[in-house]
């Protein structure tokens, strides 16, 4: 029964990724005074499924310089970890319940740079190498921030189980303790998920799509699904950590629209400033908040 529920949840994630891309294209097009996709079915509702069929119908062609096994396994390596993330989804009917599941979540989060490594380094292309180096450095830097941030919440409620965190936050949300940290979480989630204005792993102006420049068709679809699945999960975790479990779906939709608005509003950031903010600004603030939390709850 558990695996059947988990399968339905993964199907729901894939459908959510499809419609999230449609909403993103619609909002961005209206911000530029365009209509966006609207020709396939009513208001272009089935446009994502048409794009998926088009991508999966394309053949598989590998570069003669790439390392076949690592090049082919890289996207599926990331897809496996994206699917594994949803074991930690704190649902009432589906969840991998364990007292130390937050630690396991940290371990899986730390393996995401290897997905970028396999896709970029094993393509043996200059732009892929530069894109993967930038992606791994950015991912590792902000994973440290996110781990410290979640540990701050965990220490406040003295639990390493997402299920118990959701139960406790039904009566009291974490945002009442540290409201300024919510804006920092938005910054961290944008950086960790490589979203604009921090999409340096896919800087089209200087990297020609970055680490995934050698991928197209089916393998590119797998990378695309992996990235957007992780994006949705990070927003879901942020909503649960700060606002509890009430009206969860509406909050995730609202914050997704906020992130799309950020993409429409702000240009790309400078890479050196992004790394400086991580190590010289965010980490000291989170560590200081952790010290005050330790003193407050002792």
Tell me the layout of helices and strands.
Elements: H1 2-31, H2 47-57, H3 68-85, H4 101-110, H5 112-121, H6 126-157, H7 162-168, H8 180-192, H9 204-207, H10 217-243, H11 248-265, H12 271-297
Helix pairs in contact: 1-10, 1-11, 2-10, 3-5, 3-10, 5-6, 6-8, 6-12, 8-10, 10-11
Verbal overview:
With 298 residues, the protein is an all-alpha fold. The protein has one domain (2-297). Helix content is 69%, strand content 0%. It contains twelve helices and no strands. It has helices at 2-31, 47-57, 68-85, 101-110, 112-121, 126-157, 162-168, 180-192, 204-207, 217-243, 248-265, 271-297. Helix 6 (126-157) runs parallel beside helix 12. The longest helix has 32 residues, at 126-157. The chain starts with a helix and ends with a helix. The model has no long low-confidence stretch (mean pLDDT 79).
> What is the overall number of helices?
12
Largest sheet report:
none
Distance between the termini: 42 Å
Shape: globular
Multimeric organization: single chain
What is the residue-mean pLDDT, rounded to a whole number?
A: 79
Could you tell me the radius of gyration in angstroms? 19 Å
Runs in which pLDDT lies below 50 for 5 or more consecutive residues are none
The portion of residues assigned to helices is 55-70%
Number of strands: 0
Order of helices and strands: HHHHHHHHHHHH
Structural class given helices, strands, pairing?
A: mainly alpha
When the domains are counted, the total is: 1
Strand % is: under 5%
């Amino acid at each position: 029964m558990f695996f059947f529920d988990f399968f339905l949840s993964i199907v729901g994630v894939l459908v959510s990724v499809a419609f999230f891309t449609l909403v993103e294209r619609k909002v961005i097009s209206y911000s530029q005074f365009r209509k966006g996709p609207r020709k396939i079915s009513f208001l272009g509702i089935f446009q994502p499924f048409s794009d998926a069929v088009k991508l999966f119908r394309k053949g598989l062609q590998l570069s003669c310089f790439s390392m076949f096994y690592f090049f082919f396994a890289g996207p599926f390596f990331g897809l496996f970890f994206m699917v594994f993330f949803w074991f930690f989804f704190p649902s009432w009917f589906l969840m991998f319940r364990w007292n130390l599941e937050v630690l396991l979540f940290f371990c899986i989060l730390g393996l995401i740079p290897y997905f970028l490594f396999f896709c970029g380094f094993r393509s043996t292309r200059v732009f892929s190498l530069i894109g993967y180096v930038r992606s791994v450095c950015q991912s590792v830097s902000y994973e440290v921030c996110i781990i410290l941030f979640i540990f701050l919440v965990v220490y406040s409620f003295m639990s390493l189980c997402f299920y118990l965190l959701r139960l406790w936050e039904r009566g009291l949300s974490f945002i009442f303790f540290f409201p300024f940290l919510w804006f920092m979480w938005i910054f961290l989630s944008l950086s960790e998920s490589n979203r604009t204005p921090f999409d340096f792993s896919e800087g089209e102006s200087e990297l020609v799509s970055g680490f995934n420049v050698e991928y197209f068709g089916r393998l590119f679809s797998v990378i695309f699904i992996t990235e957007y699945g992780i994006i949705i999960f990070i927003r879901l975790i942020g909503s649960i950590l700060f606002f509890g479990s009430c009206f969860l779906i509406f909050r995730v939709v609202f914050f997704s629209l906020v992130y799309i608005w950020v993409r429409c509003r702000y240009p790309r950031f400078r890479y050196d400033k992004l790394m400086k903010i991580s190590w010289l600004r965010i980490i000291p603030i989170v560590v200081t908040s952790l010290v005050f939390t330790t003193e407050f709850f002792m």
